[in-house]
Amino acid sequence: MIKLLDVLQISENELKNYKVHFAIGARDKKKPYTKFLIGEFKDWQEHQTNRNFSRPYILSLIYYDRNTWVFGGVYRVLGKPTPIEHREENWSGWKYETELMDIQSDLIGRIFVSYQKEYRQSYPNLEMRPGKGEAPRDMVVSSILDKRVSISDFVGFDQVNIDYEMLKAIVRDEIPSWRSSLSNVKGVYLIADKCTGKQYVGSAYGDECIWHRWTSYAKDGHGGNQELKALLNEHGEKYKYNFKYSILEVCNMNLGNDYIISREGYWKDILQTREFGLNRN
Q: Which of 54, 97, 103, 118 reaches 20 to 30 Å from 237, CA-CA?
């Protein structure tokens, strides 16, 4: 078995200079992984609720699955953090400035680490010896991928289940497999509010394909829908990050509007989104 520290060539004498960051989301465990995929992990990590990075270096490990972490890089802490406050989000904390170090940076997003963290602390010292379980210094590499992990290729209409942040990245980067697949179908889709569980059923018809319709959602979160616009007006623009997108039914581009609209009505009836969801009609 290969230890992570052997791969990173971090010596025994250097352990005291490192904090480990086991990056895991509070509500959504894989939020930092999503941030990593869309290229926003560094900024996400630099915003902390407490002064968690009290050492010169951060060894970042990103939650992927139970007992499995992705190597996110080694960062140098630049100076002291700045206190920040986001009143609209009722959140205050600290903003760090960090620099990604060239320490096996070619393996970022490629190394997977097997480590059962049996303690609550997310920012342990690298030399820590926990009362239960393995020490961070003994973390073992479980696999090394040939390529860095990235946003997955389109795997099928029945497998689509993405949040707003991922949709925005897919549209921004025009991921070829997603654009190609969604540009050739009309159909009925579902938008779910992760906070309340309420759902919105929509459709793409006429000259619109699903890709074109979802591109408008990626811009502002509501895509012109009055129901969703009202929700964002009530809770604030950032509420769109609570939306998730899936596809209920796809239709050939040659099918008429009346058929697709009837299928939209069918799904509204089935899911009762007029009575209990976000559809007004």
A: 97
